[in-house]
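Worked Example 4.2. Consider the chain below.
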Amino acid sequence: MVEPEQVRPLAPAAHRLSSDEDEVSTKLRLRLRRRKHLKCCGCIAAATLILAAAAAVVLAFTVFRIKDPIINLNGVTVDQLDLVNGTTPVAGSNITLTADVSVKNPNFSSFRYRNTTTTINYRGAVVGEARGPPGKAKARKTARMNLTVEIMTGSLLYNPSLQTDIASAILPLNTYSRVPGRVKMLNMIKRHVVVKMNCTVTVNITSRSIQEQKCKRSVDF
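Applying the procedure from the previous section yields the following structure tokens:
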């Protein structure tokens, strides 16, 4: 005898609705969680960009801020001075001076300069000029150069104040130095500068050294 097939009762409608609601709730929670993660990532990215911008601004005003090189006249020495009776330069001879010039580079990148020029004036007349070779002042270092100036005595003998100055063993001179160059940061930021210096120098002929010195510096771009 064939047993009658058992018929399973359908799940209650309330139970089916509850399952659908759970599925929808799970999807909503996942979506909200995803949005929350995206917001967190966006906030982190924005904070990173703000910090990077702040760091760039700080670097721009500190490390990457290009500062003016500083030129100094450390000394002028008389290497050669031939006098007649200790008062008058020998005609046709030269007076040799050595100017000790230094360029201080306060930047975090090197300062490359071209040919330097130093001019010597005596009582308003140019009596000598020296040219130095190109060079480089390393980052936060000082480059020194000795410039030799040959002064033709013919340009001095016609000055009526020469004998008086030599008799007093004091030789007043004016020097003008010019150093053109360039500072480059990270191969991106470039700045061309011309460092200038005017000095009033009193040279003691007896000791062959500077007795007094006053300098004014300027920078052109």
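The two ends are 115 Å apart (CA to CA). Residues 15 and 21 are 10 Å apart (CA to CA). Compare this with Example 4.1 before moving on.
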